[in-house]
């Protein structure tokens, strides 16, 4: 809500409500509230903008959204993630506030809930801090944080994927220094020393072991392992499979999925396919690979969005949804602001996303924010022409194909 900055004086001297809780940072960045109450869901990374933060896990009989109560001796802001349907935003000056005004009643709720809520401790790590996992000594860096379930959780990159780790599982990375500082510092644990040696030995993925070989109920076809071998040899996580019709692109994608699963890198998987192929994907993945795909219909997508907004998505899932349904889904707007973190996205008939300016192309751009590992399938790459092929490659790997007039291959891993 960009108007917060322009209406700072109004906020300071009014009780108000705004239906989008994602604008909390904009509110707190304009007017500092000594107290912040979060009801349901997670506490976003705004603790530096509020002096005291408390959280309550239960839902309330209030519209979901963002509330502020200015002009008090100790002003308070409140975010309701789990409650009733959103309402129209309003800001009521204190001079016009009646005893039966809805925002006046919301203030009564806020004061009562504040007393019942639990305090949120200060986070141990800031965004950008270098950290080390306590269990295996892996180095990484904090890219985000939120408070959920009684603990700060930090977004980090581990094993080539984004994940969330609780605060107790991390410690500050050692400060780099010269040889004297290194000698005088505390010795590393056996686990950290072993992990360092292992990472040095396995600098890249295991390229000489194909876990998906003989691990599926499929007839062995050497060419179908080429995409898997390509990923292993280059260290890449994205591939365009452009075989002709009938050569088994679905099986090739399933082999890649199996390989990721064997390496614990496919906990959250989404398959996007034309509606006529959704059933085929469910059958083949189940019969050949043992992956049970659950279709996200309209109700399923709504439930997916609700769980994501409350940070309650399952730790593991295998979903499939139709391209037609997903590209028209109004929930994409909200997910564009806060993308879900998936491990693998597979798009069948990916050439339908080739035309910039279309909903399908916009969907392809959004999917690029959902997962690093992406597999595109198409049977008509050459017939589409160089421009269309470049457009698909740019969706798949924009950092390598950002100039349609000059497509280039990603560098091979050494």
From TrEMBL:
<dbReference type="InterPro" id="IPR038718">
    <property type="entry name" value="SNF2-like_sf"/>
</dbReference>
<keyword id="KW-0347">Helicase</keyword>
<dbReference type="Pfam" id="PF00176">
    <property type="entry name" value="SNF2-rel_dom"/>
</dbReference>
<dbReference type="InterPro" id="IPR057342">
    <property type="entry name" value="DEXDc_RapA"/>
</dbReference>
<keyword id="KW-0067">ATP-binding</keyword>
<keyword id="KW-0547">Nucleotide-binding</keyword>
<keyword id="KW-0378">Hydrolase</keyword>
<dbReference type="GO" id="GO:0004386">
    <property type="term" value="F:helicase activity"/>
</dbReference>
<feature type="domain" description="Helicase ATP-binding">
    <location>
        <begin position="230"/>
        <end position="399"/>
    </location>
</feature>
<protein>
    <submittedName>
        <fullName>DEAD/DEAH box helicase</fullName>
    </submittedName>
</protein>
<dbReference type="InterPro" id="IPR000330">
    <property type="entry name" value="SNF2_N"/>
</dbReference>
<dbReference type="InterPro" id="IPR014001">
    <property type="entry name" value="Helicase_ATP-bd"/>
</dbReference>
<dbReference type="InterPro" id="IPR027417">
    <property type="entry name" value="P-loop_NTPase"/>
</dbReference>
């Amino acid at each position: 809500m960009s108007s917060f900055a322009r209406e700072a004086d109004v906020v300071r001297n009014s009780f108000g409500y705004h239906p989008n809780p994602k604008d909390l940072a904009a509110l707190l960045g304009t007017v500092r509230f000594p107290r912040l109450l979060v009801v349901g869901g997670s506490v976003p990374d705004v603790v530096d903008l509020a002096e005291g933060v408390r959280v309550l896990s239960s839902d309330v009989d209030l519209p979901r959204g963002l509330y502020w109560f200015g002009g008090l001796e100790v002003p308070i802001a409140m975010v309701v993630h789990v409650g009733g349907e959103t309402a129209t935003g309003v800001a009521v000056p204190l001079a016009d506030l009646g005893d039966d005004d809805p925002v006046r009643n919301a203030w009564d709720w806020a004061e009562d809930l504040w007393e019942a809520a639990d305090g949120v401790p200060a986070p141990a790590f800031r965004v950008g801090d270098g950290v080390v996992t306590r269990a295996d000594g892996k180095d990484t860096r904090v890219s985000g944080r939120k408070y959920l379930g009684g603990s700060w959780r930090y977004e980090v990159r581990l094993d080539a994927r984004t994940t969330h780790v609780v605060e107790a599982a991390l410690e500050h990375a050692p400060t780099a220094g010269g040889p004297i500082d290194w000698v005088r510092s505390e010795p590393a644990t056996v686990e950290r020393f072993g992990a360092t040696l292992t990472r040095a030995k396995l600098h890249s993925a295991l390229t000489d072991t194909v876990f998906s070989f003989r691990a599926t109920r499929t007839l062995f076809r050497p060419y179908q392992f080429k995409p898997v071998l390509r990923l292993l040899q280059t260290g890449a996580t994205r591939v365009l499979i452009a075989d002709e019709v009938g050569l088994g692109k679905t099986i090739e994608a399933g082999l890649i999925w199996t390989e990721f699963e064997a390496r614990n890198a496919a906990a959250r998987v989404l398959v996007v396919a034309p509606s006529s192929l959704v059933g085929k994907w469910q059958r083949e993945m189940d019969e050949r690979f043992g992956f049970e795909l659950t279709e996200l219909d309209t109700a399923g997508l709504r439930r997916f969005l609700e769980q994501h907004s409350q940070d309650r998505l399952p730790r593991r899932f295998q979903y499939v949804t139709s391209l037609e349904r997903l590209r028209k889904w109004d929930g994409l707007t909200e997910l564009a602001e806060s993308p879900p973190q998936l491990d693998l996205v597979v798009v069948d008939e990916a050439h339908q996303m080739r035309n910039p300016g279309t909903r399908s192309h916009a969907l392809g751009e959004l999917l690029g924010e959902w997962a690093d590992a992406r597999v595109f399938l198409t049977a008509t790459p050459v017939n589409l022409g160089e421009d269309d092929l470049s457009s698909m490659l740019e969706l798949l790997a924009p950092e390598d194909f950002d100039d349609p007039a000059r497509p280039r291959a990603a560098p091979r891993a050494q």
